[in-house]
Amino acid sequence: MPPSRSGPEGRTKRRRRVYACDSCYRKKIKCDGTLPRCDWCYHHSIPCTYTRNQEVASLGSPNAQEQERRDTPSTPASDTSFSLQKGSGYNSTPEIFYTPPGPQPLAPQGFGTDICFAGQSLGNICGFNGLPFFSPGGLKWIRERTGDDGSLDSYSSGAPHVWPPTETRDEHESRERVELPNKKVIRQHLEAYQISIHGQLFPFLNPPCFEHTIRAAYDEELSDLSPSVKCARGCIFGFMAMASYLTVPPREDAIMSADKYAREVQDLLPDISREPVNLDGLQAVIMLCFCCTALSGDVFKMELLLSWAVRYIFHLKGNLYPTIAKGDHAHAKLHVRNLFWICFIQDKFFGLRTGLNPLFDPMNCELTLPGGEHGHCDPRSFHPSHQQKPSAFITLIRLSIVQSEIYRGLYSCPALRQSDAELLGTIRRLDSALEEWWSSVPVFTDDIHNDPTMADLLFKMQYHYCMAAIHQTSSRCTAWVRNQDTRAAGSSLAISIGASRAVLNRFLDTSPQLLGQFVMFCLPELTTSNIHLFSNILTNPLDRASWTDLELMRVTSRHVEDHLWQQAPASFTAQVRLAERFMGDLQRLASCAIVKAQRERGVDRVMGEG
């Protein structure tokens, strides 16, 4: 018998080196031996040990660079992640964290979920409780930099905020059903919503179409546009739930009405799902999804509602530009197209915030903007309603198209396999696309609308947020993983940090008295920007800007609390309080990192003098 088969040590070494890598050997599957990684290791994003005993190629070769880049993915390590230390030839390389093979917990992936900073994958942001789910490797790095024993561990297991609030069977059966509001009240809310900035940004309703909805819900007068009483009632309840906190000053009775109306829509969802696809059902689902986005951090419910709305959009052909906009239902066709764009906007915002795969594939959608031109139309040429200022809607559409390109170019599966040169080229291209969009954004402040400042602040904040989303991916570069000072990657990462500072500074420009509800739509951006500054402080605790960034984080946290009005919804209040507590922990840990680094530098100086 050959020596290699008589001893376990020799047998293991020879057979595993020649026939399979470690992972395929343990799984008892055939290893194809493809370099630099076999098929199993490549599709599970784990390091392949097939060539572990061979001489490592030069670091400057393209194959070695590609293998090193693939072995340090932007995808966050999950709660079952483990660390893999490089060999002795890479002692200066920061520790890299990988996901083991096998079934993994469901976790979002992308900018909103993965904070990869200078080679450190910190984990998920905006999990089911709306806050980060840090990987064990990221938490270990934080403990090493701060000396803390792990005060961030609790954020990975928080329960989601459910909205509308859950109720028991007895509560459901004994609950008094909400009656449809007076028609006059509905029309007043509709008029107020149409002239508000929310109506300019999200034209959920079309007045002529909505008249058919009112007749179907109140008088059971059905039509082609409103063929179902249940769907019409759901549409009206959904609009009242949204308008209760967007078109009136925050009052306790209005907020309670929002919860009640939303619960009525939720109770009608089974009936809506049994009806043929129609406009009223689509509007009800979209508006309930919008309410859920603003008032709770229940990512799973938002995703389900948005998925439902997207399928309705495809059934109603809203993904296609209406070539014939004449006839009896021309306004309905144009309105379905508006609803497509609203869903598209929510999908791209949602994807960039959470990292979840987008629901709309641009290849299956005509991205012709309202007005008939592809991305370069005059906003004044489109008037979905006589009260709407269309430039805000078109500007938001163009932003969502840029966000779609950001996700596809930097956070999709093919994007994670780019080489350093390809990655930096994509960053430059997307940076130019974002600047082109920003140069086309008009100023919305005028004497006609009472709250145009919100649109200006929203677009400014989203500009800086997308800038950070683009440039923070430079931390995937091999130069950062090896802790080298490469000018191109370093400058891009510095742009990301500067953009995160700008997001927080733009939020500080908001007035809680005038824009008390603004924080409803920007908590994920604020959380992500705080983590960027926190990561920068931990990476460079002795930098002169660290204390300045820490103070900016503290001021932002206090400003968030100022935006929380007394009668805010309970689920939203809980979400804000959780975000405040998390930001407070980041501030405390950042302070610990600075003090620890200063203390260690003092010890080094004393030892050097001795």
UniProtKB/TrEMBL annotation:
Pfam families: Fungal_trans, Zn_clus. PANTHER family: TRANSCRIPTION FACTOR PDR1, ZN(II)2CYS6 TRANSCRIPTION FACTOR (EUROFUNG). This is Zn(2)-C6 fungal-type domain-containing protein. It is found in: Nucleus. It comes from Aspergillus calidoustus. The keyword Protein transport does not apply. Residues 59-87, 150-173 are annotated as: Disordered. Residues 73-87 have a biased composition (Polar residues).
